[in-house]
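Priority: medium. Attachment 1 of 2:
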């Protein structure tokens, strides 16, 4: 399957953009904030809350990072004005993490403070392993500066993640736990399906036992079951956890969790950068290409 995945990824440039768009639109809400708000309203009618993700990462100019701040502030204002059950997810490299860490911190602090003034919350996505330490640094600095309406993402495929949870115990962070989407070297990342799942279950237990709120982000039925079991064994109330899924993915599992009365947050990517985002994700992780490729046929494109 790996060879097929690589072949699909290598040929993405040959697929006409309008066809990629047809498939991408299942996973991306659209180009504008209005598109994303429509998607979030549709999800609300199915019992789901949401997190807005403005596409864009690894910016090369401070002006792009400033623009990300302005656009994200507008997203928060819109959530507030429309009374949506939603928060935001951000990537620190979109705020200039790799240009100047202090400036990136200033922008993120500005955004988190604005979110707090509106009673909202900011989730910091986790990017590739070159960003992990800097992400923790910024998160800790925010908390030490009194910002509590901010949470982190940890990746179960990283060997270090259990130790990271231990190191963050004093902050009892609000977490999202996912498998991890980037391709990382074997020295730092588990590669086997089962060892990643095992680490996911271990880390999830450690997060709950440390008193954290956890967003259980997965579409893997085995881990959805593990998440259910971890929560039910501890008798955790609805306000101690949520499940999280990506827009357009495993909607059947999503609907079943909602029917069980569980909180389910859908990650809603949108923005002008959708094509670059799709291509980049594909090149980073050819396995995603298989989902897109199969989607081409399912959508009849
Ligand atoms: C809400 C949310 C936020 C995330 N945030 C981050 C983050 O900050 N950093 C990070 O590194 N990763 C993030 N991820 C991605 C995550 O790390 C995984 O790469 C992704 O969720 C696939 O892992 P899985 O647990 O769903 O299991 P898998 O075994 O990979 O997937 C199970 C099934 O779900 C379907 N599926 C999964 N992913 C996709 C997809 N993209 N498109 C179509 N179908 C799919 C397939 O049918 C697949 O068989 C996030 C995921 C979610 C759900």
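Attachment 2 of 2:
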């Amino acid at each position: 399957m790996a060879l097929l995945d690589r072949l699909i990824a290598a040929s993405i440039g040959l697929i006409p953009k309008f066809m990629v768009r047809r498939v991408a639109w299942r996973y991306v809400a659209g180009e504008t904030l209005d598109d994303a708000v429509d998607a979030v309203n549709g999800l609300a009618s199915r019992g789901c809350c949401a997190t807005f993700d403005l596409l864009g990462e690894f910016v090369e100019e401070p002006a792009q990072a400033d623009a990300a701040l302005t656009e994200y502030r507008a997203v928060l204002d819109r959530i507030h004005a429309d009374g949506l059950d939603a928060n935001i997810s951000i990537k620190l490299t979109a705020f200039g993490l790799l240009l100047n860490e202090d400036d990136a911190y200033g922008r993120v602090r500005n955004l988190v403070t604005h979110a707090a003034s509106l009673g909202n919350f900011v989730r910091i996505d986790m990017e590739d392993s070159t960003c992990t330490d800097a992400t923790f640094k910024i998160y800790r600095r925010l908390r030490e500066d009194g910002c509590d309406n901010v949470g982190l993402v940890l990746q179960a495929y990283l060997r270090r993640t259990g130790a990271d949870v231990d190191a963050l115990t004093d902050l009892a962070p609000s977490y999202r736990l996912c498998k991890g989407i980037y391709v990382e070297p074997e020295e730092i990342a588990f590669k086997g399906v089962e060892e990643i799942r095992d680490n996911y279950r271990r880390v999830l237990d450690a997060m709950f036992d440390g008193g954290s709120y956890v967003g259980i982000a997965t579409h893997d039925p085995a881990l959805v079951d593990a998440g259910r079991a971890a929560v039910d064994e501890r008798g955790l109330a609805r306000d101690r956890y949520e499940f999280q899924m990506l827009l357009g993915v495993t909607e059947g599992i999503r609907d079943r969790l909602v029917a069980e009365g569980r909180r389910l947050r859908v990650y809603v990517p949108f923005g002008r950068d959708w094509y670059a985002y799709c291509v980049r994700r594909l090149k980073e992780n050819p396995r995603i290409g298989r989902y897109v490729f199969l989607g081409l046929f399912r959508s009849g494109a």
